[in-house]
From TrEMBL:
Residues 19-159 form the UspA domain. Pfam families: Usp. PANTHER family: STRESS RESPONSE PROTEIN NHAX (PTHR46268), UNIVERSAL STRESS PROTEIN UP12 (PTHR46268:SF6). InterPro entries: Rossmann-like_a/b/a_fold (IPR014729), Universal_stress_UspA (IPR006015), UspA (IPR006016). This is Universal stress protein. It comes from the Bacteria. Belongs to the universal stress protein A family. Transmembrane segments: none annotated.
Length: 166
């Protein structure tokens, strides 16, 4: 017969948690969930006085074959996405976040963020959005489950709505 573990599992001191580096994923199409995730991220970054990186992924598989072979079309799309990303960074700075970086990648959002962006930025918290109604396209929000399961850091998923209706 084995001895019973007499140690109380709740016999510990509560330790405050603080995050040192945040990464927020925003959709290149500025979905509602991306904006809410961004709002949450800048609120945390400002409160904790920590650096924030804003990342978006250009989904190149959305291009038709002719556009994907045209360097001008791809270059123009990259410029558009980068301009949006810079607007997010400006908004974060205006809100009071002291250190803001931007990151852009190409490919599948969840995989690119987990395999390339997180190792590069090394956040201890990733904030992503999740669409609740729009299911017609792949959004970063629809990749939230992949990122939550595979990211080496903590992940907070922010919904596009509060989930409650009055």
């Amino acid at each position: 017969m084995s001895a019973k573990n007499t140690q109380d599992p709740l016999d510990f001191d509560v330790q405050p948690m603080a995050f040192r580096r945040l990464l927020v994923a925003v959709d290149e199409d500025d979905s509602t969930s991306s904006i809410r995730a961004f709002n949450y991220a800048v609120t945390l970054a400002k409160s904790y006085h920590v650096p924030l990186a804003v990342v978006t992924i250009l989904e190149t598989n959305d291009f038709n074959i002719y556009d994907s072979l045209s360097p001008d079309v791809l270059a123009n799309r990259r410029e558009e996405v980068l301009a949006k990303l810079n607007r997010y960074a400006d908004k974060a700075k205006e809100f009071g976040v002291l250190e803001v970086s931007t990151m852009i990648g190409e490919g599948k959002p969840g995989k690119m963020i987990v395999e390339r962006m997180i190792p590069e930025w090394r956040p201890d918290l990733l904030i992503v959005g999740s669409e609740t109604k729009e299911k017609s396209r792949l959004f970063i929000g629809s990749q939230a489950s992949y990122m939550a399961q595979n990211a080496p850091c903590s992940v907070i998923v922010v919904r596009s709505s509060d989930g409650y209706t009055d």
